Amino acid sequence: MFQKGNRLGECNKGKKHSKKEIAWEVNENGCHICTSHALNTYGYPQCKINYKMKLIHRLVYEQKYGPIPKGMSVCHKCDTRNCINPEHLFLGTNQDNVDDMVGKGRQSHQGSPGLPGEKHPQAKLTEKQVIEIRKYEGMTDKQIANIYGVSVTNINNIRRYKKWKHI
Questions:
Q1: CA distance 50 to 40
Q2: How high is the pLDDT of residue 51?
Q3: Residue 79: which CATH number?
Q4: Which of these, 10, 76, 140, 160, is most buried using a 10 Å CB contact count?
Q5: Tens digits of per-residue pLDDT, 2-45?
Q6: In whole angstroms, what is the distance from residue 61 CA to residue 106 CA?
Q7: How many separate domains does the chain show?
Q8: Quick one: pLDDT at residue 96?
Q9: How confident is residue 107, by pLDDT bands cut at 50, 70 and 90?
Q10: Do the bridges between strand 7-13 and strand 18-26 make them parallel or antiparallel, or are there none, so unpaired?
C-alpha cells in the first residue's frame, strides 16, 4: 500500500511555463513513485525544463549528488522506472546498466537469452496453451491460430519446437 509522499522542486509545464511540483508516493519497497508527471514511452517520468524534456530521476540524482558526468547513466537499484528515490539511484555506464539488467534476468529482446515463455513481457500464450497446441492432431495451423488469437507462423514454430523449446 502507498503512503502519502513528499514534494520536490518544480518543472516547467506547457508553453506558459507554469511551475509544477514533483510529487511522489512511497511504496512498500521504499520506492518514491512519481505521481505528478507523465511517463515517457519507456516508463520514466519526465518534465520540460528550458523547452527540453528531462527525465526526473536524473534531475533528482543531480539535486542530491551533483552533476552527472558525460556519458554516464543514472540507473535504478530497484528496477522501478518511475522511482525517483535518490537512495535507489546510482551512476553507471551504459554497459553497467546492461550488465545489471542481464544479471537480474530482465533482458527480454529477440536474439537474447531473455525471459523464457510466459515470463516474457510480450508472451501471448501460457505454457499450458503451448502444451495443448502441440497435442492438436487433424487441425491446420490456421485453425489453431484462430482458436488462440495468434499468428499461423507462431503456431507453426511452436509445433516444430522452434519456439517455446523449453517445454
A1: 18
A2: 86
A3: 3.90.75.20
A4: 76
A5: 333 454 555 654 444 447 889 999 999 999 999 999 988 888 99
A6: 23
A7: 2
A8: 92
A9: low
A10: antiparallel
Domain with 134, as residue range(s), is 117-159
Predicted pLDDT at 153: 94
- Write the DSSP string, the chain: --B---EEEEEEETTTTEEEEEEEEE-TTS-EEE-SS-B-TTS-BEEEETTEEEEHHHHHHHHHH-PPPTT-EEEESS--TTB--GGGEEEE-HHHHHHHHHHTT---STTS----GGGSTT--S-HHHHHHHHH--S--HHHHHHHHTS-HHHHHHHHTTSSSTT-
Say whether both 66 and 92 belong to one domain: yes
Query: What's the whole-number mean pLDDT along residues 55-71?
Result: 95
* Domain match, 59 and 22 both: yes
Which residue in 20, 19, 24 sits closest to 34, CA to CA? 24
Rounded distance, CA 128 to CA 167, Å?
Answer: 10
- State the cell numbers at 61: 540524482
Same domain, 12 and 56: yes
| Residue at 28 is within a domain | yes
Which tens digits make up the pLDDT trace of 143-159? 999 999 999 999 999 99
Q: Are residues 84 and 126 in the same domain?
A: no
